[in-house]
């Protein structure tokens, strides 16, 4: 019997990349490959799924690619993802990857590898473009099942390169989305995460994002649904009311980017600070304690001290559960590259640190607000002490101080306190009772 070929993955960037890696990993396993979870381990094939959203993302992707090339020069190396799309010609010329596969052909990677080992032509450009040809992953490294419903973006924010590397907005057919979700529920997944580049723009036939979510929530089974990062515009009152359904988790990652109206205009964002705050207030009217997390870019061209002060004040009013902070970095080919008023790196670093400190303060305050309340926790693992850990419906981490609980199971937990694990505030709980979503 032939020895199984081994394949290793490294994923950088967003949940969309993670979904696509999960699907590829599952398909390779189905075809008899042994998946190893460490890119430093010995394998026959290495797949690096890259990100290019910032200069830092490029650097991380390049470091992984160079490291893999030095360590595993005799193995097959494939670079894919957004950096592979943006710098395809340069990466091919570098000779550090055997195959450079753009996002449009990422679904073909399994066939490319198979063709390579059969000695057949495996030129990625020979394969058809297909951004939705991913089967739902049956085996992943995490509890949640990611489902891709949309790709691409038509917004063209002045700082963003995503429309170039992901293309124009396109939505997956409703029946394929529903079929994928039914499959992962049958596989035993208990939390479904809807993912895409710009989820709110989903539109296929007569089905928009709101009606798609309604149909997903109506499916039978013991599962819940989480919406990943989403843009804060275009939603109606009826969308906010969807969160009354217990299967839809009360957490959204709404991308603010700046609390300055002037900077939002320079970024070409399609909403105002007033609209953003109105959305946040409506969500919390529907579900008290609703967790709103966000992204903020500091040091955007032309950002004054007053603009930055506006951002801090808006964040303080909304009281985010967490803030992902990015220092603006120039992306070639974007409008912002040509904007006047580029900000010095030291100023960006200082502003980033201020936002980080505010974020840590608000995160701790938000999580402390749950002490004395209950959360339905999906257990992800059992720690070295035999205690269960996982996330509540508000996407807050919880350590359940009881033994004998089962992974991939919902428990309603009474929250009793908070502890710090690697400087992160984690809620603690007890009196866990198994819970079933209707």
Strand segment count: 20
Largest sheet: 5 strands, parallel
Q: What is the CATH class designation of the largest domain? A: Alpha Beta
User: What percentage of amino acids are in beta strands?
Assistant: 15-25%
Helix percentage range: 25-40%
Radius of gyration: 22 Å
Kindly, what is the distance between the CA atoms of the first and last residues, rounded to a whole number of angstroms? 47 Å
From the 3D structure, determine the CATH topology of the largest domain.
pyruvate-formate lyase- activating enzyme
Describe this structure in words.
By secondary structure, the chain is α/β, with parallel strands linked by helices. It folds into three domains: 6-126, 3-Layer(aba) Sandwich (Rossmann fold), CATH 3.40.50.12160; 145-368, tm_1862 like domain (pyruvate-formate lyase- activating enzyme, Alpha-Beta Horseshoe); 374-434, Beta Barrel (OB fold (Dihydrolipoamide Acetyltransferase, E2P)). It contains 13 helices and 20 strands. It has helices at 15-30, 55-71, 82-86, 88-94, 109-117, 162-166, 174-187, 209-217, 237-241, 261-267, 273-286, 305-318, 345-368; strands at 6-11, 34-36, 45-50, 76-81, 99-101, 145-148, 150-151, 170-171, 191-195, 203-204, 207-208, 224-227, 251-253, 291-298, 322-327, 374-382, 388-391, 397-400, 410-421, 424-434. The strands form six sheets. A five-stranded parallel sheet has the order 2-1-3-4-5, with helices on both faces. Strands 16-17-18-20-19 form a five-stranded mixed β-barrel. Helix 12 runs parallel beside helix 13. 41% of the residues are buried. The model has no long low-confidence stretch (mean pLDDT 94).
């Amino acid at each position: 019997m032939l020895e199984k070929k081994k394949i290793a993955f490294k994923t950088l960037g967003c949940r969309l990349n993670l979904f696509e890696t999960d699907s590829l990993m599952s398909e390779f396993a189905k075809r008899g490959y042994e998946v190893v979870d460490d890119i430093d381990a010995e394998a026959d094939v290495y797949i690096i799924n890259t990100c290019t959203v910032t200069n830092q993302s490029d650097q991380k992707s390049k470091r992984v690619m160079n490291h893999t090339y030095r360590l595993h020069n005799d193995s097959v190396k494939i670079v894919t993802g957004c950096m592979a799309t943006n710098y395809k010609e340069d990466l091919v010329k570098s000779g550090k990857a055997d195959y450079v596969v753009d996002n449009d052909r990422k679904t073909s990677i399994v066939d490319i590898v198979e063709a390579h080992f059969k000695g057949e032509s495996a030129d990625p450009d020979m394969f058809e473009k297909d951004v939705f040809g991913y089967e739902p992953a049956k085996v992943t490294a995490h509890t949640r099942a990611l489902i891709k419903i949309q790709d691409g973006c038509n917004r063209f924010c002045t700082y963003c390169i995503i429309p170039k590397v992901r293309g124009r907005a396109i939505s997956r057919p409703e029946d394929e989305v529903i079929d994928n979700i039914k499959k992962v529920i049958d596989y035993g997944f208990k939390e479904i995460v809807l993912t895409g580049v710009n989820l709110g723009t989903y539109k296929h036939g007569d089905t928009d994002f709101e009606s798609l979510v309604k149909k997903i929530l109506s499916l039978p089974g013991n599962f819940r649904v989480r919406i990943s990062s989403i843009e804060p515009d275009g939603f109606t009152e009826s969308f906010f009311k969807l969160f009354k359904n217990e299967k839809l988790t009360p957490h959204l990652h709404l991308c603010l980017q700046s609390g300055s109206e002037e900077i939002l205009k320079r970024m070409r964002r399609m909403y105002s600070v007033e609209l953003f705050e109105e959305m946040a207030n409506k969500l919390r009217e529907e579900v008290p304690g609703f967790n709103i997390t966000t992204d903020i870019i500091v040091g955007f061209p032309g950002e004054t001290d007053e603009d930055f002060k506006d951002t801090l004040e808006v964040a303080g009013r909304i009281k985010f559960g967490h803030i992902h902070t990015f220092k603006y970095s120039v992306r070639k080919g974007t409008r912002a590259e040509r904007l006047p008023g580029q900000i010095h790196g030291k100023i960006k670093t200082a502003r980033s640190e201020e936002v980080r400190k505010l974020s840590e303060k608000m995160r701790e305050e938000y999580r402390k607000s749950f002490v004395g309340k209950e959360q339905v926790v999906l257990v992800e693992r059992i720690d070295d002490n035999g205690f269960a850990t996982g996330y509540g419906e508000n996407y807050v981490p919880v350590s359940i101080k009881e033994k004998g609980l089962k992974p991939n199971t919902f428990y309603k937990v009474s929250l009793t306190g908070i502890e710090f694990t690697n400087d992160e505030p984690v809620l603690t709980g007890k009196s866990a009772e198994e819970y079933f979503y209707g």
